[in-house]
Each structure stands twice: as C-alpha cells, then as structure tokens.
Amino acid sequence: MSVNPFKIYPLRGLMDEPKVKSKSPLKKIADIAGRAVANDVFITPLSLAKIQIDLIKSDECDIWMDPFKNNGSYYKQFPESWIVQHQWTEILEGRDFFTYEGHVDIICSNPPFSLINKCLEKFIELSPRVISILVGALNITPRRMEMMEKAGYVQTEFRMASWKPIVGMAVIFQWEKADSLNPREADEIKKNQSYIGRH
Ligand SMILES: C[S@@+](CC[C@H](N)C(=O)[O-])C[C@H]1O[C@@H](n2cnc3c(N)ncnc32)[C@H](O)[C@@H]1O
Description:
This protein is of the alpha/beta class and 199 residues long. It is 24% helix and 17% strand. It has a domain at 49-152 and 161-170: Rossmann fold (3-Layer(aba) Sandwich).
C-alpha cells in the first residue's frame, strides 16, 4: 500500500480506546467520604514541592521539617545547611510525627488529609516560625483558620494549583508567627489576609 504523506491516518489502538468519562467533582467527593479507610498517601510532584519551599524565607540556621516524608519530595529539596540537621518523620518508616518532640523552625509538607486537625494541633504545639502546607481548598475551613490565628500565626502566603489527585484546587497555605515579623509588617499582612472572617 502506498502512503499518502498529506493524509491523516487514524492510529489504530489509540483511536479505538473507549472514552472514559471523568467523574463529576460531587461524585468524587462522595466517593472519598464513603471510603472505609482514608487514602492518605499522595506523592507531591517535585516541581510543586519546590515552588512551596521557595516561597519560604529562611536562613542557614533554620531547621526544616517534613513530618510526612514518604519518598522525600520535600525533604530532599530543602535548602542545604552545614549548620543544622533537617528533620523528618514518616509512619511507614516507623517514625510517628505525633510523638516527635524536637525543635523545628520551619514545617513544610503535604499532610495526610484525613488528619488535618490533628496535624495543625501538633504543628502549633511544636511552635515553628513558619508552617506551610499543601492541601485541598476544601480542607481550609473557618475553624482551622481561626485556630491558627488564635495560636498567634498570620497567613503569609496563599497559592492555588491544579493537581489531579485533589478535587478542585490544591492550595499552598503558609503561616508565620506574628511575633517573628516586625510589628508594622505583621499589621500590613493581617490587613491583606485571604480569610476575612465569618459573615
Ligand atoms: C499526603 S502524603 C505526602 C507524602 C510526601 N510528603 C509527599 O508530599 O510526597 C502523607 C504521608 O504521611 C504519612 N503519614 C501518615 N500518618 C503519619 C504519622 N502519624 N506520622 C508520620 N507520617 C505519617 C503517610 O504514610 C504518607 O506518606
């Protein structure tokens, strides 16, 4: 058979593939809510973890921590330091974050979505200067925003990204301890926060 270079030939196999209809967001949320056991293992793309890390102002003395390391999307991209040892925990490797007691300056991670309240409570207990998390937009609730505010944190970054495993938007949320900022800067940041209270 002679091939006409100007004709578009269908790619057999690819073109025969049945079309899979993607689920609606509401159906996806209902599926997640109906799970008997939460699926908490999602590996963050290196590019997304790097953007989140780069939003944080730090110096060489800062101890960074990824409490939920898994394969290290965050941990292996933390800024190198010759002065301090960065920290990690990962339940699959026998290190439970909720029993961790060391000092940390910066927590930067993608936490298990079914344990967000417990995570925020533990973050507050450890009292780092910066807390940065990647979660679904639906995980950010008024109660959680107010809990952080009450603990003395102000929200200093908010970015949205599209990441397939997350229904709707994935968001990077960063808080800093208000008393670590200079007072004028803290006032300015408070005025520009994304969360403007209950109405
Ligand atoms: C959403 S994944 C994020 C993994 C990794 N940080 C990343 O972004 O690619 C959450 C991780 O938290 C781990 N995890 C769940 N409970 C934990 C706990 N109590 N202590 C430490 N790690 C835990 C899970 O095993 C899982 O690997």
